[in-house]
């Protein structure tokens, strides 16, 4: 066997690529808004890990809650039984969620949350006698994780097409990004929202509403470069779904828990989905956790439907894992005690100004922001799409900043505990990295 310190010994799904092998980047320690490499080099976390460490790294309160839970009860099944803390957590989530999103299903990741939400949507349609509604509608440039459900409704072409098989009967709406009309818009783009949402009407007409179960969208697409929807878009989607008996699912794995300066994007946009998926910030990424929140009519429909549909066989060994529930509860205390959602809202203008100060740097073709996150598009190299983005990401890391790369776009989403001078530092380093790769 290879030596334990030999990187070749490991299979790393995200990073088992040739680029990483040539130039490995390792993170060994984290605290607050910083990482340290094994050599002790300090790197400011411009991405809150992978959009997930909203309350900052190494939170003592979460550590203690996990330790206490481990002492009390390490594990309990949530299959045909349960444990009190999962119900307490669900009650706390219900109290902070908008509308009647009052019921929770817990799982272990965003991908599991998405697959679970799609299954719940299909089961609900069957329970009300609409079993012909099996079609699911996603959106181009949407990202919904790596399960078969998620890649099928997702709109990242490689992610969708390279596996050979997908869920049948899925269709996609166009993505929300109209660069020509909306380039360098601050916050929500002004133009095109209603027209874009009306693409759903076209798809409904094509397939017939009686075949469509649900539509899933990220309220603000994250992993494909951060694409805030134009004004009116989500409201219009909600209207169209209501008109045709189609369920609307918001994938809030990134936007949930404060990223937009509100608890959830549903609050920010004042649009309540029928189902909502979350992960990441739910546990501050300490213990893996995901969840699906559903509205009362979904829960009631499943519970009061025919017996054979009600006995849903869906759940994971680690659903509502006690350690995850303990972490999730502790991070809710932090969000509340430190007013982090409000803080995110207050900082978002400063962040917006910082991001847009990078306009005019060589090759920068668009900058977008919403809440405490944003994306910067750069002109790609003709012979090597994505190379500029990758080089910028590598350069930023060398300079001491962690950013996220998607093709020739750089995305950033700092922890919500970030200070203004640290935002200045992030913007300064991002600018230097962009200049260096021009
Ligand atoms: N949905 C969205 C919107 C996401 O951003 C992600 C992860 N980036 C996922 C689903 C998948 O989450 P996970 O990686 O935890 O499976």
UniProtKB/TrEMBL annotation:
It comes from the Bacteria. The keyword Transferase applies. InterPro entries: Aminotrans_3, Aminotrans_3_PPA_site, PyrdxlP-dep_Trfase, PyrdxlP-dep_Trfase_major, PyrdxlP-dep_Trfase_small. It holds the Pfam family Aminotran_3. One of its GO terms (molecular function) is transaminase activity. Its cofactor is pyridoxal 5'-phosphate. Keywords: Aminotransferase, Pyridoxal phosphate, Transferase. Belongs to the class-III pyridoxal-phosphate-dependent aminotransferase family. This is Aspartate aminotransferase family protein. The lineage of its organism: Bacteria, Pseudomonadati, Pseudomonadota, Alphaproteobacteria, Hyphomicrobiales.
